[in-house]
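Quick note —
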Amino acid sequence: MENITTEIREALLVLVPFTEKNHELVQLDMNFGVFKNAIKLGQNI
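Predicted structure written out below.
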């Protein structure tokens, strides 16, 4: 495992739309949600 190297060859920006619910933002296709407060707290880091 020590001999494994990685490199980024290409980057792609993708828009992933979220639906706003009461206390979270939800991405229905991926069954994924993020609490709005977590995003607000993360902006202060």
